[in-house]
Amino acid sequence: MKAACYRSLGPAAEVLELVDLQLPEPGPDEVRVRIVTSGINPTDWKTRAGLRNREPDGFQVPHHDGAGVVDAVGSAVTGLVPGRRVWLHLAAFGNRYGTAAEYALVPAARAVPLPDAASYDLGACLGVPALTAAHCLGGRPGAVAGRTVLVAGGAGAVGHFAIELAKHAGARVVATVSSEEKRARAEAAGADLVVRYTDADAAQRILDFAGRVDRIVEVAIGANLDLDLAVLATGGTIASYAAAGELALPVGRFMVENITLSFVLLYGLSPAQLSAAVSWTSEALDAGALTSLPMLPYPLELVAQAQDRVAEGPVGKVVLRVAED
């Protein structure tokens, strides 16, 4: 099978190559999936570049997320059969065969049925972004039903799904963005109010519209902490899923106002937490409540350019179109 892989860490153009690999056979608890679309996330290029300090075990086919069709199943697998459409998550975590290939080999628990009405592109948008969003929102719809949620970075991948999951669960959603283009993206996802976080009156506009918010899904806590604290309710939660720079906390205020600060990294979730996030995402997907991000497609042979595009932080989802639907 054709596959992108790297055998050492470094710049994309230097270490990523397109090779022929032997088609892997599934073990008892594994499934092999013919990949249609491979989704690329920041964690994919950061791992390849060496920022995660994870040396490949001989070789590594990158990319956690993707969508395709089950091709073969292991002897102990139940609930999935060849021909079933699926979306994949954490495909390359502790596993050589990620989704940047014609076929991926993954534990069966990482392959989730994809409804017939959902495109492979949408399936490839899920995984890291949607599951991170679901956990940041409390891991279950009831955590935000009837509540007010602030989503920082509402035009990003996690922000997009945080808005849609929260709205589907019955929350009121405010989103912050940095530009008019991104405002349109957050509004299209369903945010009830979208403000530019750089505006001097951003906090007051949020308070006037929604009062104090119950939960914040945060992409840049160091930059946004003052705004967050200006609008967060007593007993509220800030769930931060991105790390950049240093952070000084007003510990006394956090204590007095009984604020919870949660740092979220998908790799560190317990099996029960990950399962809850998958269940919520799947339920919303089945209901037609999730939509794909704007697609920025590349062919498999341009995987290095595609990863470099992700590193630039574009608006939209960079994917590899590996095969026809």
From TrEMBL:
Residues 12-320 form the Enoyl reductase (ER) domain. This is NADPH:quinone reductase. SUPFAM superfamilies: GroES-like, NAD(P)-binding Rossmann-fold domains. PANTHER family: QUINONE OXIDOREDUCTASE. InterPro entries: ADH-like_C, ADH-like_N, ER, GroES-like_sf, NAD(P)-bd_dom_sf, Zinc-ADH_QOR/CCCR. It comes from the Bacteria. Keywords: NADP. The lineage of its organism: Bacteria, Bacillati, Actinomycetota, Actinomycetes, Pseudonocardiales. It comes from Amycolatopsis ultiminotia. Pfam families: ADH_N (PF08240), ADH_zinc_N (PF00107). Gene3D superfamilies: Medium-chain alcohol dehydrogenases, catalytic domain (3.90.180.10), NAD(P)-binding Rossmann-like Domain (3.40.50.720). SMART domains: PKS_ER.
